[in-house]
C-alpha cells in the first residue's frame, strides 16, 4: 500500500512536535486519530517510524530517512501552491515569522500591519521567542535573526544594520555618580541579559564593553527597557526602540556605539515559492524602512 499525503502530513507533525497531542493541535484533529494515522503509515511502509520515550515520540532510523523525503515533498507542494498565487494577486493564507523579542515588539508590529493593509486576506503571525527559531520543525515559515546561520539548508538574506547605545533616564543620572568613561560604569547598576541564557553571541553586548556583572537581568529586551525606563539602572538599547521610551537618554555615545545586523532566514526549499518570496521582499523592505525611520527619530 502506498502512503497518502494526508498521512505524511501527520507524520511530519508528530516528528516536529514529538507528541501526538501537540501534533493533533497543530493539525486540528484529535490525538487518537493521529495515533491511528501513524500506525497506518507504519503498516504501509512495514517499518516502525517512532519510539516512545520520556521525551516523547522520537524518530527511528527508518523515520529519519522518511522525514528527509517527506520534507522535500512538502517543500515541493508549498512551492507549487506558491507559484499558483501569481505575481500580482494579493497574498492570502497564513504566514508565521519567528523573531527575537526586540524586533518582534518594536519593528514587526507596524511592518506587518502595513503588509496586512495591502493584503487583507493574509493572516500574519509573529512568534516572539528568546531563542533561535527552529525552522526545520516548521515553527515558522521564516525567521528574523541577529546572526547568519551557517548550518542547514537555509536561504539567508541580510536585511538591515541597526545601532545600539548605552541609555539611562535623566532621573537615574541625576541621583548617581557621573558617567564620563566606561570605567565609571562599574559603580552603576547594569541592566542586561541573563548571562547563561544569551542564545546568540551577537547579543552579549555588556561583555563586549567589559561589563562582567548584571544586577538586573532578563531574557527579554522589553523587560530590560522597562526596567531602565523606571530609572533603575543603565542598559544597552537598540536605537530603534528609543522613540517608544522617550525618558531614556543616550550616554557615552563617543565611547560605546554598537552595530548589529538583521538576517531573514528561510527554508531553502521555499525559494521557488512565489507567495513567500513576495512576502519576504515586503517584510525586508518594511524592516529596512522602519529601522531607518525610528533611528532618525532617536537622533532628533
Protein architecture, described:
The protein has 300 residues and is α/β, with parallel strands linked by helices. The protein has three domains: 5-83, Arc Repressor Mutant, subunit A (Orthogonal Bundle), CATH 1.10.10; 93-160 and 261-299, Periplasmic binding protein-like II (D-Maltodextrin-Binding Protein, domain 2, 3-Layer(aba) Sandwich); 162-258, Periplasmic binding protein-like II (D-Maltodextrin-Binding Protein, domain 2, 3-Layer(aba) Sandwich). The chain is 40% helix and 22% strand. It has ten helices and eleven strands. The strands form two sheets. Strands 3, 4, 5, 6, 7, 8, 9, 10 and 11 form a nine-stranded mixed sheet that branches. A two-stranded antiparallel sheet has the order 1-2. Helix 1 crosses helix 3 (31-45), helix 2 packs across helix 3 and helix 6 (108-118) crosses helix 10 (274-299). The protein starts with a helix and ends with a helix. The model has no long low-confidence stretch (mean pLDDT 89).
Amino acid at each position: 500500500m502506498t502512503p497518502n499525503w494526508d498521512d505524511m502530513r501527520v507524520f511530519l507533525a508528530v516528528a516536529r512536535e514529538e507528541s501526538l497531542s501537540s501534533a493533533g493541535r497543530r493539525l486540528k484533529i484529535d490525538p487518537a486519530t493521529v495515533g491511528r494515522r501513524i500506525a497506518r503509515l507504519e503498516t504501509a511502509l512495514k517499518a516502525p517510524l517512532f519510539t516512545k520515550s520520556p521525551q516523547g515520540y522520537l524518530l527511528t532510523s527508518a523515520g529519519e530517512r522518511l522525514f528527509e523525503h517527506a520534507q522535500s515533498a512538502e517543500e515541493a507542494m508549498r512551492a507549487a501552491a506558491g507559484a499558483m498565487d501569481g505575481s500580482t494577486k494579493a497574498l492570502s493564507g497564513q504566514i508565521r515569522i519567528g523573531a527575537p523579542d526586540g524586533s518582534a515588539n518594536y519593528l514587526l508590529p507596524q511592518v506587518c500591519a502595513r503588509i496586512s493593509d495591502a493584503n487583507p486576506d493574509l493572516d500574519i503571525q509573529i512568534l516572539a521567542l528568546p531563542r533561535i527559531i527552529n525552522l526545520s520543525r516548521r515553527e515558522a515559515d521564516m525567521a528574523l535573526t541577529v546572526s547568519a546561520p551557517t548550518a542547514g539548508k537555509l536561504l539567508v538574506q541580510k536585511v538591515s544594520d541597526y545601532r545600539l547605545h548605552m541609555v539611562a533616564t535623566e532621573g537615574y543620572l541625576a541621583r548617581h555618580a557621573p558617567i564620563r568613561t566606561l570605567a565609571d560604569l562599574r559603580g552603576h547598576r547594569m541592566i542586561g541579559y541573563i548571562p547563561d541564557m544569551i542564545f546568540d553571541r551577537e547579543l552579549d553586548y555588556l561583555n563586549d564593553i567589559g561589563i562582567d556583572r548584571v544586577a538586573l537581568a532578563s531574557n527579554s529586551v522589553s523587560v530590560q527597557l522597562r526596567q531602565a525606563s523606571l530609572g533603575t539602572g543603565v542598559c544597552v538599547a537598540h536605537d530603534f526602540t528609543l522613540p517608544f521610551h522617550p525618558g531614556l537618554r543616550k550616554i557615552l555615545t563617543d565611547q560605546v556605539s554598537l552595530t548589529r545586523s538583521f538576517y531573514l532566514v528561510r527554508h531553502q526549499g521555499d525559494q521557488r515559492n512565489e507567495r513567500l518570496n513576495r512576502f519576504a521582499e515586503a517584510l525586508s523592505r518594511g524592516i529596512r524602512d522602519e529601522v531607518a525611520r525610528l533611528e532618525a527619530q532617536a537622533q532628533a
